[in-house]
Amino acid sequence: MIEIMSPSQVARARDTGALVADVLQAARERATVGTNLLEIDTWAEEMILGAGATSCYVDYAPSFGRGPFGHYICTSVNDGVLHGLPRDYALADGDLLTLDLAVVLGGVAADSAISFLVGQSRPAESVALIEVTERALAAAIDTAGPGVRLGDISATIGSVLTGAGYPVNTEFGGHGIGSTMHQDPHVPNAGRAGKGPKLRPGLMLAIEPWVMVDTDELVTDEDGWTLRSATGCRTAHSEHTIAVTEDGVEVLTLPSKR
Ligand code: MF3
Ligand code: CO
User: Can you give the pTM of this predicted structure?
Assistant: First the structure.
């Protein structure tokens, strides 16, 4: 079912989105060489609970994971791209870290992910990978609006990724979001323009291009959650939650002014 949010729900989603963005931003600023992934999870826990929000992850037990996730944030490193289960690992200089976070506040969910390099080194391949996911996300947001078809968004993402020479995997992608995190419709990261349902004001979508350097195949880590590139190559992921408005879209997962 596709959920259409009321104007007051979209207004509340701004607060949810700001909290998600603030947690990601704070973690990005604090994470450095030697930071343990479990510490990042604790920072997220403190900020989420401190704001009176509920994690979408702790009790989440979908078919694509093993049992309840049991943590507050996804921490995926290097070849880890999606659903990275926080583990006892200290970050090293040049690690490519992806953080993905979703919470509910005021009855409305928001979901966002960022990828960035830890420490000082800036390996060119990783910089390019992060840049292409951010560019695909920005292009998809530019495309979205009332009357636009879902396939237009997928096609936009796919053409940016493919145009930059990356393989595209469509098993996992974006999704509708509203009172809960994962809703219809699925938003594949490739597709055909002009196809699919038309977007309407009040629809909220999590748009999330992700990419792997040289493969479109995923493998599941022995932790039962973390999805890694099948070849061990590096990966990146960028995600925002947006709301379709009467005349365009609003990005909800932007940091509050600090
Ligand atoms: N937030 C992720 C997404 O973008 C889903 C993570 S589910 C988890 O859709 F259980 F792994 F946390
Ligand atoms: Co998502």
Answer: 0.98
Best substitution site from 83, 169, 226, 237 to test ligand 1's pocket, by max atoms within 8 Å of Cβ?
83
Task: Assess if residue 1 is contained within a domain.
Answer: no
102 lines ligand 1 (CB under 6 A): yes
Atom in ligand 1 nearest the alpha carbon of residue 208: 4
Q: Which of 23, 57, 133 to mutate to test the pocket of ligand 1 (most atoms within 8 A of CB)?
A: 57
**What mean pLDDT comes out for the span 172-186?**
98
Q: Is 148 in the pocket of ligand 1 (CB under 6 A)?
A: no
Tens of pLDDT along 87-102? Answer: 999 999 999 999 999 9
Distances (CA, A) of 39 to 18, 31, 83, 189: 22, 9, 17, 31
Instruction: DSSP for 27-93, please give it.
Output: HHHH--TT-BHHHHHHHHHHHHHHTT-EESSTT---TTSSS---SSSEEEETTEEES----S-B--T
3-state DSSP assignment of residue 154:
helix
For 117-132, how does the pLDDT look when each residue is reduced to its tens digit (9 = 90+)?
999 999 999 999 999 9
Residue 214 lies in a domain: yes
Would 256 be classed as within a structural domain? no
Domain count, the chain: 1
Full residue range of the structural domain in which residue 57 is found: 7-251
pLDDT for position 135: 99
Neighbours of ion ligand 2 (CB under 5 A): 111, 206
Question: Where residue 216 sits, what CATH number does that domain have?
Answer: 3.90.230.10
Q: Is any atom of ligand 1 closer than 6 Å to the C-beta of 41? A: no
Q: Is the pLDDT of residue 246 over 70?
A: yes
Percent of the chain with pLDDT over 70: 100
Is residue 2 in some structural domain? no
